[in-house]
């Protein structure tokens, strides 16, 4: 069943649809953060995304960094991108990938120029990009053109009881309207991984999921430990979660009821399509997962929290949803959707789910989230192993 | 208003949806259909979000929530007691950990 519903979004050159209209400055490496932030200080409406990586990485780890940097620039929430790198070659690799979307992108190398000349040159281009972007208009587009991601953090038992199932209701409805929904948190599925696997209809995809899951656990165990000390986290335990199995069973409540029809490993691009629930191999760290979802093309993230995670992202709005009445009261500035009445049985799952769905539409139409206004702009590429 | 919620009829623990005080007579609700759950006496304070035993659970017995095992009891647990890290551990993780 696919129904029709429209939102007001930005249609990009390649037909993808964003809900924000950022000009982004992407440093390819840690050394270029200063110049990138320099541009953002000078030019209004520019977002810099500093990060600590990009030198002497190799193999799949380097490919993943490029995938995340270029994916972030290619994200439909970005109108135009500036790429700054200490060396030109790697910066070009990132920029060329972004340019495939047809959006404006320009590279500025630091070697041979220094920071000050680079900031000046990049700022002149950024000024043009911002002025061009400011004329882009929101237009009415089908909800089915959106990719949305979900993840929970600082979870507690209220997540599994109320905020996650209510989000699951909204996820089902988004998929009914044709949207694509991404989820991940590979290690955090432990104890419910068979339930997730059984929702993958295609046997080849199901096998791919098992391979990804088993490899993830093998890497953890190859360190001679398991995650008993870090999963559940201290915050999870404070909130009443005792074991990883309990956390996982609560976690998957937000997946709704639809079959899982795509399985993406770190480097797999999101294929074109509609009405999909997709597993993405991610760490369970909030900012790392949201960063990878955005690089895959998510334009809006639904984030459920029990004890009060405050994560945001530089280019995609992160909607915070909580059912913990204490968190909603004590950390009110961070919570966009309060569903504590569902925990207290004062409303129905459908009502709370509709509230999340409707709020998602408002944010897609332009309403700023708490994380955006509070300037939570965590950009955290996943790093797979040591650098050379 | 109920004091704790139960995910599934097979569960032997419920989740406090309000701060529960020691000695309080408390009642539960099954969240799948909203039907009334068990009534019992809380033997300890149970903070909002924490688990309360709905049955006596013996050492080594599985603790069930969402109709699925979430770990095993490391001590005998009485009906109405707080169930958490002091008397419940993961089945999946804990054998490799050095902690």
Write the layout of secondary structure elements.
The complex is a heterodimer of chains A (388) and B (99).
Chain A: E1 6-11, E2 17-18, E3 22-27, H1 33-42, E4 46-48, H2 59-74, E5 78-85, H3 88-99, E6 105-109, H4 114-133, E7 139-142, E8 147-153, H5 157-176, E9 180-183, H6 193-198, H7 203-221, H8 234-238, H9 244-251, E10 262-264, E11 276-280, H10 286-296, E12 300-305, E13 318-322, H11 325-330, E14 337-338, H12 340-343, H13 349-364, H14 370-373
Parallel strand pairs in A: 3-4, 3-5, 5-6, 8-9, 8-12, 9-11, 10-11, 12-13, 13-14
Antiparallel strand pairs in A: 1-2, 1-7
Helix pairs in contact in A: 1-4, 2-3, 2-10, 5-9, 5-13
Chain B: E1 4-6, E2 13-16, E3 25-30, E4 36-41, E5 51-53, E6 62-65, E7 68-73, E8 82-83, E9 88-89
Parallel strand pairs in B: 1-3
Antiparallel strand pairs in B: 1-2, 2-5, 3-4, 5-8, 6-7, 7-9
Tally of helical runs of chain B? 0
Name of the CATH class of the largest domain in chain A: Alpha Beta
SSE string of chain A:
EEEHEHEHEHEEHEHHHHEEHEEHEHHH
* Largest interface, chains and sizes: A-B, 33 and 37 residues
Helix/strand class of chain A: alpha/beta
Order of helices and strands of chain B: EEEEEEEEE
* Shape verdict of chain A: globular
Percent of residues in helices of chain B: under 10%
Largest sheet of chain B: 6 strands, mixed
Largest sheet of chain A: 7 strands, parallel
């Amino acid at each position: 069943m696919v129904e029709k519903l429209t939102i007001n979004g930005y249609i990009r050159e390649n037909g993808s649809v964003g809900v924000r209209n950022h000009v982004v400055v992407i440093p390819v490496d840690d050394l270029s953060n200063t110049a990138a932030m320099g541009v953002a200080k000078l030019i209004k409406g520019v977002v810099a995304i500093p990060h600590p990586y990009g030198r002497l990485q190799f193999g799949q780890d380097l490919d993943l960094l490029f995938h995340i940097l270029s994916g972030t620039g290619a994200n439909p929430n970005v109108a135009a991108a500036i790429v700054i790198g200490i060396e030109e070659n790697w910066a070009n690799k990132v920029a060329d990938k972004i340019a495939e979307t047809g959006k404006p992108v320009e590279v500025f190398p630091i070697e041979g120029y220094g920071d000050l000349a680079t900031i000046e040159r990049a700022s002149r281009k950024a000024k043009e990009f911002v002025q061009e972007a400011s004329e882009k208009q929101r237009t009415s587009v089908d909800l089915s053109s959106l990719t949305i991601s979900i993840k929970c953090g600082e979870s507690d038992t209220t997540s599994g009881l109320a905020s996650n199932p209510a989000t699951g209701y909204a996820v089902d409805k988004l998929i009914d309207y044709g949207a694509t929904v991404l989820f991940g948190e590979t290690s955090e599925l432990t104890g419910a991984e068979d339930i997730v696997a059984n929702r993958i209809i295609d046997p080849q995809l199901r096998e791919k999921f098992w391979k990804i899951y088993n490899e993830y656990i093998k890497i953890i165990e190859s360190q001679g430990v398991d995650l008993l000390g870090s999963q559940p986290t201290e915050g999870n335990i404070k909130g009443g979660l005792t074991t990883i199995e309990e956390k996982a069973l609560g976690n998957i409540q937000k997946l709704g009821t639809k079959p899982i029809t795509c399985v993406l490993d770190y480097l797999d691009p999101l294929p074109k399509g509609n009405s999909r629930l997709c597993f993405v191999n991610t760490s369970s760290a909030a900012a790392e997962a949201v960063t990878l979802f955005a690089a895959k093309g998510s334009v809006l993230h639904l984030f459920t929290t029990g004890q009060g995670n405050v994560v945001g992202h530089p280019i995609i709005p992160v909607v915070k949803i909580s059912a913990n009445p204490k968190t909603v009261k004590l950390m009110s500035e961070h919570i966009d959707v309060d569903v504590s009445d569902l925990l207290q049985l004062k409303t129905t799952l459908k009502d709370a789910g509709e509230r999340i769905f409707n709020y998602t539409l408002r944010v897609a139409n332009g309403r700023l989230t708490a994380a955006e206004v509070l300037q939570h702009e965590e950009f955290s590429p996943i790093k797979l192993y040591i650098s050379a | 208003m109920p004091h704790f919620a139960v995910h599934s009829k097979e569960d032997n623990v419920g989740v406090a949806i309000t701060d529960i005080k020691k000695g309080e007579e408390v009642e539960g609700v099954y969240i799948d259909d909203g039907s009334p759950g068990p009534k019992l006496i809380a033997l300890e304070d149970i903070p909002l979000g924490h688990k309360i035993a709905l049955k006596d659970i013996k050492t080594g017995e599985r603790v069930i929530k969402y109709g699925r095992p979430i770990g095993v009891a490391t001590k005998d647990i009485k009906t109405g007691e707080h169930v958490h890290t002091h008397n419940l551990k993961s089945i999946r993780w804990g054998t490799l950990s050095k902690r």
